[in-house]
Amino acid sequence: MKVNPKKLLVTGMEFLPEWISQHIKSAQIVCTLDVSEESLSRKVKDFDGILFMQTISHYKITRKIIESGDKLKFIQSAGVGYEQIDVDAATDHGVVVMNVPSATTVSVAEHAIALIMACAKNIVKMHKTVLEGGWRTMIFGVELRNKTLGIIGFGRIGRAVAERMKAFEMRILAYDPYVKENDIKEMGCKKVDLQTLLKESDVITIHSPLTKETKGLIGEVEFGLMKNSVILVNTARGQLVDEKVLIKALSDGRIGYAGLDVFEKEPLEKDSPLLTLENVVLTPHSAVQNQDAMARLMSQNGIQVEKALKGVYENTVNPDVLKKIKKNQSRVAKL
Ligand code: NAD
Hints:
2 domains; elongated
């Protein structure tokens, strides 16, 4: 009997790099750059899985797309974040949603630390001064020893930052409502509430996911609690911080510096006031842009997709669906 080959839809890519495709043996692969809701709803009909690449900013796998996937069994986000996928709709339709969480942890932690250091040592301004012929002008940085680092979101990346920043002899505070006090204490850090972290930190770095609860987590009130000299670093998601308020706080000297890899709108708009400020260091959502992390991320994606095509799901973010699938399988077996 001829078995129909499975089909994998890769969204946001023109072709699938060898690093990923070499692992995928069980499906015909179709890539698409046309990621409008209309187009994906049409295309998805006879696909078994979607590999969601975060290459094009802010496109979504909506309920309509998921509902159009008559054969759809899984959607894999190619990175850590999966806020662009309607997980509730997937759960309603028995579609497994997965992410690839650990391949890029160290790279993002290192990038956050690079931004902290660039801000603290005023590196960009000093670099520009040298280019302009200046030497030992009165541009100052700050020393981090004995200062306080506040980590918002004490998951994989937050912890990796804490481990590394201990070498700078900083006092480390952590705000994470879902991590036990003891787990934070064991890492030599102190669990605090958000207000305390904002008030006491000299450097704040954000590592929580973007959810309904965390959208706009840092707004007017929160900026009002921070020290005037604070360095704010965001490598998580732009929408965690109210960008208008951030720009005002940076312009008015309400806060000292910001190091940003992520923005409310990406790519950053050409007329964004952030581009005119002197007390910012900006990178283009590039925390994982290095050979080691990319190779690891891509091959983990390929391996995980191949397993999913065979019905083995790893790093599931809606595990309730797995129970549903098991129940259905045992019902079919009994028939
Ligand atoms: P993780 O799930 O391991 O950790 C996130 C932590 O945030 C968890 O401990 C969770 O309890 C905590 N959290 C949830 N809600 C919170 C809240 N309201 N307040 C404070 N903390 C809260 O995730 P991770 O691997 O550490 O990644 C963190 C984020 O980094 C991802 O969600 C992703 O958006 C971002 N990221 C960015 C890049 C990049 O290229 N810049 C790359 C990878 C990941």
